[in-house]
Structure formats: structure tokens, C-alpha cells
Amino acid sequence: MNTQGNNAENIPASLLSLPPVVVVLGHYGVGKTNFSLNLAYDLAAVGKQVTLIDLDTLFPQQRPY
Q: pTM for this one?
């Protein structure tokens, strides 16, 4: 997932006590989900509790399960 390997030790200390983070951009295919997954993975790797919610507000779809 993380294209640069497991670089959790490279996260600045200021990022380790973050308030909620929202990643928003109105374009398709620019890497919002990939960036969010990598950030969540790296923060979890250093012991932070992470909840990731990914949704599409431009073209919402309800998927059948």
C-alpha cells in the first residue's frame, strides 16, 4: 500500500497528536483515497488509533451486499 515502504518512523512528532483530518478535493483520480490510506496506515503503525471513512459525495452509490 505505502509506495515508499514502511516509513512510520519518518512521521513528524507534530502529526502524532492530530485532530480529525479531512482530505477533500473535487477531482477524480488524484489520489485522495491512496493518500488517506497511506496516512492511516503510517499513523496506525506508530500506535495511533485510526478510523478511516471514505465516501464519494459527488457520485454517491449504494452498493448491494
A: 0.59
